[in-house]
Prior knowledge:
By secondary structure, the protein is of the alpha+beta class. 39% of the residues lie in helices and 21% in strands. The chain has one domain (39-187): CATH 3.30.1330.40. The protein contains five helices and five strands.
Amino acid sequence: MRKGMSGDMIQRRGFLVGSAALLFGxxxxxxxxxxxxxxxxxxxxxxGIILPQAPKPVANYVGWRKAGALVFIAGQxxxxxxxxxxxxxxxxxxxAQGYQAARAAALNSLAQLxxxxxxxxxxxxxxxxxxxxxxxDDFHDQPKVLNGATDLLVEIFGEQGRPARYAVGVxxxxxxxxxxxxxxxxxxx
Length: 189
């Protein structure tokens, strides 16, 4: 304890530091996220959503990596046997089929996340989503396709599931899947 500071002053100072961390660190939204996401597993069940087993990597990489409170999920596509999972948007697939493929990719991403942390109830927020859409040169609705993934995350986590994101059109993806997403998550420690 520094000279001239009472225990009460330190407690008040600690509170102020804690408040500043809430306001300027992970934000007041983080506390709201903890309240909302604490029932993520129950919301999955109530919606009748069953997550698949976390897919095994198909090359020399891992499905997820943790760093402190962050979890990085490797690129995930839809299950190869899912309807509308393969093909190009603007050619073989419609926006609606691409939307479903993105939703299926998000389910695989959540399966990886659960494998990494044990329970989706530990999620504070989805920080970022990177989305790649297998599409023709004249297809321009990649954001509408990727909404299939984002809408699922918002359904399960509320506003804390709405990530910063981008949707990019590409001329091909592995196994000719329609969509691949990668996500970054903040977890409660």
